[in-house]
Amino acid sequence: MTPASPAPHKMSARGVSVFYGQKQAVKDVSIDVDMDKVTAFIGPSGCGKSTFLRTFNRMNDTIASARVTGEITLDGADIYAADMDVVQLRARVGMVFQKPNPFPKSIFENVAYGPRIHGLASSKSDLEGIVERSLKRAGLWEEVKDRLSDSGTALSGGQQQRLCIARAIAVDPEVILMDEPASALDPIATAKIEELIHELRGRYAIVIVTHNMQQAARVSQRTAFFHLGQLVEYGETDNLFTAPREERTKDYITGRYG
Ligand SMILES: Nc1ncnc2c1ncn2[C@@H]1O[C@H](COP(=O)(O)OP(=O)(O)OP(=O)(O)O)[C@@H](O)[C@H]1O
Fold first, then answer.
1. Ligand 1 shell residues, CB under 6 Å
2. pLDDT reported for residue 258
3. C-alpha 50 to ligand 1 mean position (Å)
4. CA of 85 relative to ligand 1 center, distance in Å
């Protein structure tokens, strides 16, 4: 009997480099990201974590000087192919930013906007159902269900970030990219976001950039350590923090630099 082939990776990067003009920010990085897992990107400031994360849904396209080489696939399809619909790609690979950035619209509209432009709801009640389900999944429903028409920007920072997560979830993504999603939040709001990441893990592939090693250890199953644009080490989070293979990883996690 031939052994079953391993499950295909949700996303794979092969030999990815990113340049800003002449400057190379990401150097020949290859990595796989899987469903049901949280992957953390850690490393000192400026090592290219955010730049690399943004290649996964082509957010670098919005920066005129940025150039990406190598290959990134989603379910085996090259996301940089000429016929890739980038709007569709960003619905499948959603993103949550460091600073919560709700639209200056109502809580309801923040979540309803994506499903509406992507034609995901067949009726008003269908749309209301999507909004409720997304807010529930983002752990915000109980706090906002009686004031859905209030402005999203009037919420607390932590609530705004959960609203942004609800907005990403509403279009039914497969992958969620989070770029330091809790670094602008207080410890209680941070704990809520971390709890939420745990709850979301079963449904999506999640990739999180974090400055905070304790946070990476708490929320992720896999960790990638970056230094000077290179991927130094990638492995199971427990192993990486307890028995790093590379000297540079060891120096970083023991606080010798960074
Ligand atoms: N829009 C840009 N134009 C030019 N250079 C950039 C741009 N964005 C980032 N860089 C440079 O690319 C390198 C990697 O930056 P990036 O933000 O990806 O690192 P990072 O590891 O996420 O850092 P941090 O943790 O501080 O956010 C840095 O040297 C940075 O100055």
1. 20, 25, 43, 45-51, 63, 65, 211
2. 58
3. 7
4. 26
Contact (Cβ atoms closer than 8 angstroms) between residue 190 and residue 156: no
- Considering the domain 11-77+88-100+170-253 in this protein, what is its CATH number? 3.40.50.300
Are 23 and 189 contacting, i.e. CB atoms less than 8 angstroms apart? no
Task: Give the Å distance between the CA of 232 and the centre of ligand 1.
Answer: 17
DSSP letter (8 states) at residue 67:
E
* Half-sphere exposure for 211 (CA within 13 Å, toward CB): 11
Give the pLDDT means over successive 10-residue stretches in the chain (258 positions).
Answer: 72 98 97 96 95 97 95 97 95 95 96 95 95 95 97 96 96 96 91 93 95 95 97 97 96 83
| Domain extent listing, the chain | 11-77+88-100+170-253
pLDDT at 1: 53
